[in-house]
Specification:
This protein is α/β, with parallel strands linked by helices. The strands form two sheets. It has a four-stranded parallel β-sheet with strand order 4-3-5-6. A hairpin with a 6-residue loop joins strand 1 and strand 2. The longest helix has 17 residues. It is globular.
């Protein structure tokens, strides 16, 4: 197989990149950006070799613990549980949360062969018990598997003296009711907020 074909096939491992997109990327790099292509290859190789999971929260890091876990300015009493490191990045961009995180690296999905141990739920329970966490926020994506995971986590943690909550799901800012699906509207109704002080 030629180097060109191997590179096109290699790029297809990325989400949303089909054969035509991969081919366009390769031709662009070869025609206009060879130096940047070499830089990209070096960065990719370094990242694949040195980036690992944080020993405390499972976020990506090059050290034993990530920067968020090492920070002395974050609230250690509040723990936000997410599915993947990309969820941490999204929450951090909001500037609305200053606690710590725990990354599940997935959700319970019997069809995919993922159970509680596969996504680190025993580690989560140990973390809550050992660090004196007072609040756990379950920030999982709205799906059937996520709701099953949330229920399982609640069952594991509800005997601890902590507050357990989940993100509200419903109507996005600027959304119009007539364009929303019934599941989104139902979730918004169930998670409605009181206007009473």
């Amino acid at each position: 197989m030629s180097s060109l074909k191997r590179l096109v096939d290699a790029l297809r491992c990325l989400p949303g990149v089909g054969p035509k997109s991969a081919q366009r990327m390769v031709y662009h790099l070869l025609q206009h950006q060879r130096q940047r292509g070499l830089h990209l290859a070096a960065c990719l190789e370094q990242a694949m070799q040195y980036i690992q999971y944080c020993q405390r929260c499972n976020n990506y890091t090059e050290a034993d613990h990530c920067e968020l876990c090492l920070s002395t300015t974050r609230d250690r009493n509040t723990l936000c549980v997410v599915e993947s490191p990309s969820d941490i990045a999204a929450i951090e961009q909001s500037n609305a949360f200053n606690g710590s995180y725990f990354v599940l690296m997935g959700k319970i999905s019997p069809l995919d062969g993922l159970g509680p141990d596969d996504i680190g739920l025993p580690r989560l329970v140990d973390l809550v018990a050992s660090e004196g966490i007072s609040e756990v926020i379950l920030a999982l994506n709205p799906s059937v598997e996520s709701q099953a995971t949330i229920h399982f986590i609640y069952e594991m943690l509800h005997t601890y003296p902590i507050s357990i909550s989940q993100l509200a799901h419903g109507i996005p800012s600027g959304g119009e009711l007539e364009f929303l699906d019934g599941i989104t509207i139902g979730s918004a109704l169930r998670n409605r907020a009181s206007l009473n002080a």
